[in-house]
């Protein structure tokens, strides 16, 4: 009998935690990024080992096919950037996961990142509200 997945089901990201971390990287670092930059990020490295750089590339290709990222050809590979649909999915994942720890339990660096993410969220929502008000 042929295996359906080349990896065990325990290694699959069914919950969406890796997708959330990946999309947060694109939100915190706006612009175009190569797969190697994501592989070298310390937070993502804890979720995907560096030996699995091919897995990171395949994950980004899947996100492009889902419409969460856009891709352009660059020297020696591709660069990726988050789309509006990716922002929407990230909002959904934040709602799904909620806050995992209370603000007081966060380490100082995590607290800074949390504050920065919240300010970026507000900026995105304000921009969308302005766009909606202009179109009406």
Textual characterization of the structure:
The chain has six helices and two strands; from the N terminus they run H-H-H-H-E-E-H-H. The chain is about 60% helix and about 10% strand.
Strand order of the largest sheet: 1-2
Tell me the quaternary state: single chain
N to C succession of SSEs: HHHHEEHH
Helix content: 55-70%
According to DSSP, the number of beta strands is 2
- In terms of DSSP E residues, the strand content is 5-15%
Average pLDDT = 77
List descriptors.
mainly alpha, single chain, 136 residues
Summarize the SSE layout with pairings.
Blueprint: H1 17-28, H2 35-40, H3 42-47, H4 53-66, E1 69-74, E2 77-82, H5 84-97, H6 108-135
Question: How would you summarize what this structure contains?
Answer:
By secondary structure, this protein is mostly helical. Helix content is 59%, strand content 9%.
